[in-house]
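Q: Here's a chain of 361 amino acids. Please give me its 3D structure as tokens.
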Amino acid sequence: MEIRVDQFISSFYPKFAEGAVFNDILETQKTLRNAGYISDIFTIDPEKDSGARFYSKYNYRSKNDIVIYQYGEGSILTDFIIKLKAKKILRYHSVTPPKFLKETPKSLLDTIGGNKDAKFLISEMNSSFATSEYTKTELENFGFKNIQILPVFIDFNKYKKTSKAAVSKTTKNLIFVGRLVPNKKHEDIIKTFYYYHKINPKSNLFLVGECKSCPRYVNFLKKLIKELDLNKNVCLTGQITFEELVNFYGVSDIFICMSEHEGFCVPLLEAMYFTLPIIAYNSTAIPYTLGNAGVLVNKKNYAEIAELIDIILTDKKLYSQIVEKQNDRLKEFSLENTKNKLIKYIEELKNSGNSIETYIE
């Protein structure tokens, strides 16, 4: 009998250009199907043409079937997953700490529910896939055992190399990619850029990401940009297409990340791919994703970071050394390596029997 390995997620919007989790799900599905498994995606309210199905349509057939719960927030899916008789894997993407979501009641409830649900799931999962050493530590703190590290899937064949446009020859362009939400700390990037712009007035900052999740935070950022007289030099892109995302990377010179909570941070790998040197704040999963690549800063001294940006962008030898280390690090996240890990873990679970006690101590 053919075995099903299906994925469940509370929401699924694969058209988002910066939707790393959604891309991870699609690549997981592709890998499973290529390995001979039947694999579908189930969600609460599937978008038209997304390829996902209503979770209530899931057709459980055999105790040998496997479900992967793609997890980052609390939802009604948790109770549904718990009741299934199939083998279960928690694919953990981290839950944003409540302190970053005080202005957004729904998100705050989701994250509180996410932490609560995760504890309910401890005794229900046969195995867990953490995206990084950091998220593995989070799961261990919840009480999970038998945790495998499976990096986020990312297919760089989809990223068309673009030659840098003429604008990058006359200006220096800084970029960060990520939803405009408080934990990403866009304000710290803007303040850093304020000082860099004094060093090099011919410079721009691209903050690429969806702006609708936290309107109060976005308004705060817009007010800050205006107060610092940076309206002409800071671009809040809002939701963009994948092609536009590639183009923004193509005209940028350096990637700046001041985020204080990341479960993995795929844009770091995107920056590596586009040979942009990275400066990032040392927090959560960021040092694990970077490894020994990029430049980590432990304090947010905006003026000093601005000077560091200038040094990197003017010292060609240093620039090349940083990019070379990043290129080496990127090889460790090759799609082939991640595919092999996934199939290995699935095969081990498939051949292990169905006793949860085997996996949870």
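Q: Can you summarize the key feature?
A: Residues 105-121 form the longest helix (17 residues).
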